[in-house]
From TrEMBL, chain A:
Stated name of the protein: (2Fe-2S)-binding protein
Organism: Asanoa siamensis
Residue ranges, annotated region (Disordered): 1-21
Transmembrane segments: none
Stored PROSITE patterns: 2FE2S_FER_1 (PS00197), 2FE2S_FER_2 (PS51085)
InterPro entries registered for this protein in UniProt: 2Fe-2S-bd (IPR002888), 2Fe-2S-bd_dom_sf (IPR036884), 2Fe-2S_ferredoxin-like_sf (IPR036010), 2Fe-2S_ferredoxin-type (IPR001041), 2Fe2S_fd_BS (IPR006058), Aldehyde_Oxdr_Iron-Sulfur (IPR052914), Beta-grasp_dom_sf (IPR012675)
Limits of the 2Fe-2S ferredoxin-type domain: 20-96
Oxidoreductase found in the keyword field: yes
CDD domains in the record: fer2
Keywords annotated in UniProt: Iron, Metal-binding, Oxidoreductase
UniProtKB/TrEMBL annotation, chain B:
Domain FAD-binding PCMH-type positions: 1-169
SUPFAM superfamilies named in the record: CO dehydrogenase flavoprotein C-terminal domain-like (SSF55447), FAD-binding/transporter-associated domain-like (SSF56176)
InterPro entries reported in the protein's UniProt record: CO_DH_flav_C, CO_DH_flav_C_dom_sf, Diverse_Substr_Oxidored, FAD-bd_PCMH, FAD-bd_PCMH-like_sf, FAD-bd_PCMH_sub1, FAD-bd_PCMH_sub2, Mopterin_DH_FAD-bd
Source organism (scientific name): Asanoa siamensis
Keyword Nucleotide-binding: no
The protein's name in its UniProt record: Carbon-monoxide dehydrogenase medium subunit
Keywords on record: FAD, Flavoprotein, Oxidoreductase
One Pfam family it belongs to: FAD_binding_5
Domain of life where this protein originates: Bacteria
Length: 174, 285
């Protein structure tokens, strides 16, 4: 898609309405893609960067399946404007395994059978790792409260919580 | 759709003046839902996330001034002692992911009757700071809302900040919803008891065309509370206070609840909030 020259920066910060170059930093790599202004980070990841690990459940912020990190904090990519992510570091489920080794939380989800259909799992894992970083996982009630933004329709919650407890209690803290 | 991304506050005001139809977006947690489902197609989006002035907070005389772009997470982490009622309300907003992005400025901009911040702002006697290239004005939040998703904000204005008294009273917040996360309130209630001035502040959410105060309930309670002795609140006083709060609501029957249920629940929430605030004046944090 061509850049719309007629709306090129006659005024500071003005872009659009057609596809415009955007630079996104995802999992430590820099990508230059063309997006319309209205595109969510979720659609940018899935449809433009072919990173389909981040799932689209509700597209309105209620299910948590699209959870990613922005500058280390968990956010909902469906409710984050892709344009506003320029200059920020995005991390997705594709980026958390290191050197071919699963992240301890990924391994714990496998060990505890913390999923059935698996659709919510990337969001659950991104949320779970962030939860431990936030330090809000002391009690089971804390875990339930601070994982409450991630829905699992298969009801794997007890196993998800067991996986989180295991990583929390591991010597290296995950 | 065009995209406007001012680098600072002066530029943001100039851009808003030049594009009064531009829809401001900060965290995006409200605006993006409408965009994703094509319920709104604004001519332009005005991204305020580069405007760092909006993410500051500090004291301004007798007031605490909080930038419109301060997230709910920061209200909880940094300001729970200074805005106790609002911090309690913030803990009920969405989910941790939403609280990392959502802002009170966005809540005020949407001006939904169900906004979680609004009852706490009403109870605290907050001001909303609106700015444009024409100047800045501070509007009492009691006069800010004019209807469902409508406010006194003019098309060329942006929400700069909100202000609350720097020394808060005993504040509480309670909300009814169907889930512990991601709920739009069926109804909500906020209370502020200021022992120094012996005044009472209230805020009702999701039970009327706008967030509401229960002014009759405030006057009744201020006159009946045993401020001097700090003795127990008589049950009859608590019950009457609840009734007055319920009757101040102007709810409708909708998918989230019936009008009757909302009035009843508000009376219960009001009694509970009163008991919490009176017995633990500093315990709202």
């Amino acid at each position: 898609m061509a850049i719309n020259q007629s709306t090129a920066p006659a005024e500071t910060g003005l872009r659009g309405p057609r596809g415009e170059p955007v630079t996104l930093d995802v999992n430590g790599a820099t990508y230059a893609i063309e997006l319309e202004p209205r595109v969510s980070l979720l659609d940018a990841l899935r449809d433009h960067l072919d990173m389909t690990g981040t799932k689209k459940g509700c597209d309105q912020g209620t299910c948590g399946a699209c959870t990613v990190w922005m500058d280390g904090r968990r956010v909902l990519s469906c409710l984050t404007l892709a344009y506003s992510c320029e200059g920020h570091q995005i991390a997705t489920i594709e980026g958390i395994a290191q050197d071919g080794e699963l992240h301890p939380m990924q391994q714990a989800f496998i060990d505890h059978d913390a999923f059935q259909c698996g659709y919510c799992t990337p969001g659950q894992i991104m949320s779970a790792i962030a939860l431990l970083r936030e330090g809000n996982a002391t009690t089971d009630a804390d875990i339930a409260e601070h994982m409450s933004g991630n829905i699992c329709r298969c009801q794997a919650y007890p196993n998800i919580h067991a996986a989180i407890r295991e990583v929390r209690d591991a010597d290296d803290g995950g | 759709m065009e995209f406007l991304q001012p680098a600072d506050w002066a530029e943001a005001l100039a851009v808003k003046a030049a594009h009064p139809d531009a829809l401001p977006i900060a965290g995006g947690t409200d605006v993006m839902v409408d965009l994703n489902f094509d319920r709104a197609r604004p001519g332009a989006l005005l991204d305020l996330t580069r405007v760092t002035d909006l993410t500051d907070w500090g004291t301004d005389g007798d007031w605490l001034r909080v930038g419109a772009g301060v997230t709910y997470r920061r209200l909880i982490d940094e300001l729970a002692g200074r805005v106790p009622g609002l911090a309690l309300a913030s803990r009920t907003v969405g989910s941790p992911q939403i609280r990392n992005r959502g802002t009170v400025g966005g809540n005020l901009g949407s001006a939904s009757p169900a906004g979680d911040a609004h009852p706490a702002l009403l109870a605290a006697g907050a001001l909303v700071e609106l700015a444009s290239v024409r100047g800045t004005r501070r509007v009492p939040v009691t006069e800010y809302f004019t209807g469902p998703k409508r406010s006194v904000r003019t098309p060329d204005e942006l929400i700069a900040a909100f202000l609350v008294p720097a020394r808060p009273g005993a504040e509480q917040f309670a909300k009814v919803g169907t889930r512990n996360a991601m709920v739009i309130a069926v109804c909500s209630f906020a209370l502020s008891l200021d022992a120094a001035t012996r005044t009472v502040g209230t805020g009702i959410g999701s039970a009327g065309p706008t967030p509401l105060r229960a002014t009759e309930a405030e006057a009744f309670l201020a006159a009946e509370l045993p401020w001097e002795t700090r003795g127990a609140v008589p049950e009859s006083v608590a019950a009457r206070f609840g009734e007055l709060v319920g009757s101040a609501a102007r709810p409708i029957d909708d998918v989230r609840g019936s009008a009757d249920y909302r009035r009843h629940a508000l009376a219960v929430l009001a009694r509970r909030a009163l008991a919490w605030a009176w017995t633990d004046p500093g315990g709202a944090v």
